[in-house]
Write a structure and sequence with these properties.
Blueprint (H helix, E strand, L loop, with lengths): L40 H15 L5 E7 L3 E7 L3 H5 L4 H14 L8 E5 L3 H23 L3 E2 L5 H11 L5 E6 L6 E6 L7
Parallel strand pairs: 2-3
Antiparallel strand pairs: 1-2, 4-6, 5-6
Length: 193
């Protein structure tokens, strides 16, 4: 007999009972069943996200904030919206990734799905732009390269774009995977002759 089931197990799931005689076919959430049809894709995406969040036991509502031919923006509101955002938006990013993978399987009906909560993404990007400009000014003032903390590809892109037209600095990403960082490099001033 297995004595593990009588002791508390952290991070373990034990299922007891008999297995069904015939293995059941994995069932996709109902909202994903017609992902090929572009009509009603926003509502389908909202329903699927709502199902996922319900499985996560989060007390939230999902609404379609905006929709056009290229993009659908879903908004998460409610008591557990902060948990749906996650640390540095990681949960929002994961939910967005999953929704895009499920609903955009066919290239002809592809529409990018953005998952947001309130104006979190806009505020986050604005904070990154502010950080980038502040650190660029510091790089120029001190005349040395400033290396930022590791960040996601999306966040690095915001920083690169915000400093692309700023005179006096260039940017470069360095490192691998989750440890990839941006360096803000001051341009050397030409000496007067």
């Amino acid at each position: 007999m297995d004595d593990r089931k009588d002791k508390p197990q952290d991070g373990a799931l034990f299922v007891t009972g008999t297995a069904p005689e015939k293995p059941e076919k994995p069932r996709a959430p109902a909202a994903a069943s017609e992902a090929h049809d572009d009509e009603g894709k926003a509502e389908e995406a909202a329903e699927l996200l709502d199902e996922i969040l319900e499985l996560m036991d989060l007390d939230v509502d999902v609404d379609v904030r905006a929709e056009d031919e290229e993009e659908i923006v879903l908004d998460i509101t409610g008591r557990d919206a902060g948990r749906a955002i996650g640390k540095k938006g990681a949960t929002l990013d994961a939910l967005q990734f999953v929704l895009n993978k499920i609903l955009n399987r066919t290239p002809e009906s592809r529409r990018h799905i953005v998952v947001d909560s309130g104006d979190y993404r806009e505020r986050h990007e604005q904070g990154l732009v502010t950080l980038a400009k502040r650190e660029a000014k510091r790089a120029v003032t001190e005349g040395r390269t400033i290396t930022l903390q590791p960040m996601s590809a999306r966040d690095r892109r915001v920083i690169h774009l915000s400093l692309a037209k700023l005179e006096g600095v260039t940017t470069m990403s360095q490192g691998e995977g989750a440890q990839r960082r941006i360096q803000i490099i001051p341009q050397r001033r030409r000496s007067a002759r």
